[in-house]
Amino acid sequence: MKIAQINATCGIGSTGKICVSISQLLSQNGVDNYILYASGQSDYPFGIKYMCDWEIKAGALESRVLGNYGFDSSYATKKLVSILQSIDPDIVHLHNLHGHNCNLEILFTYLKNAQKKIYWTFHDCWAFTGHCSHFTMAKCEQWKSDCSYCPIPHEFSWFFDTSSKLFEKKKRLFQGLDLTIVTPSQWLADLVKQSYLKDYPVKVIYNGIDLSVFQPTPSNFREKHGIAADKKLLLGVAFGWGKRKGLDVFCDLAKRLDDNYQIVLVGTDNSVDQRLPLNVISIHRTENQRELAEIYTAADVFVNPTREDNFPTTNLESLACGTPVITFDTGGSPEAIDETCGSVVPCDDVDELEKEIRRVCTEKPYPCEACLERAKAFDMNARFEEYVKLYQFG
Description:
This protein has helices at residues 13-28, 53-66, 74-87, 104-113, 163-173, 186-192, 221-224, 247-256, 270-273, 289-298, 313-320, 350-363, 368-375, 380-393, and strands spanning 2-7, 32-37, 47-49, 91-94, 117-121, 178-183, 202-204, 232-237, 261-266, 280-283, 301-304, 325-328, 342-345. It is an alpha/beta fold. The radius of gyration is 22 Å and the shape is globular.
């Protein structure tokens, strides 16, 4: 058996790390496998880069001008197909294809003609919409029918609303594929069953994390940042802070909570700093995952006011470090926790969020041991072994 994964990245970002984890398990099982990727640089021995950075930029510009998101990058996709023809895999496993790294028509034409078995892990909703990866904040349900009259067309094209055209093109291309869809959350699986992909088999495989890295990790983080031992530390971790990730919610909480609480945000940058109240500690980046584990461990509660998400691994990382989670009832985010290790509050209900933060920090209803026990369900070795079994047995 020979397997080729296709993704925007290799070993970088959440999806790139997932690809490498799957690849490593395959190699341990003696399976010949490759990761074909477009963006960034990777020294992973089974990674093959098929695009240059300028090609991605050119594809993005083409998409913005012509409104052909997902059908740009023709030249690079022909190179991708050429590599696939050379490898001749038995299985092609797709991940993120909407980083201006793939022309769906060219790739799917090859996959159909070559009669390849396809697994596609949906990390968001893009595959069954005209062009958006999430639609919760836009309160749009057009994807269930035809994606006409997009409420946010200029996020994808400067000049045209091509959402309906792209929707119909995708719908046509999906016909006749030997495809199994994988989703990292039941929430996304339920959406797929309401889309034009409803007749394809769907399997839920939750994301996993490395429990040898994310575990209770003592440090001097509080002392280093002048946070007293009796102060309640509220932690937020995201990359690409904005309204979607709930930056405004943390700004609101910083005004509501007194000096007994300290908010720490990880993954910020200079532009985010300009929007933050002075009493929020901003950390642009961590040196490594161990340092991130130290911060999770130092926190009293991890707060995730995300408004659009599939299955955020930050929730899992926090639990694995023994820190309970409070999240908005959004997407698959609540699926990471149960009644032993965290709380779910209605999306955008900051009053209820504040109330729950105070309760969790005061009553401590979610002990460290319960969080650690829950995290065991998301051991990456067990979760990604499900992919190996899927390849072997379907």
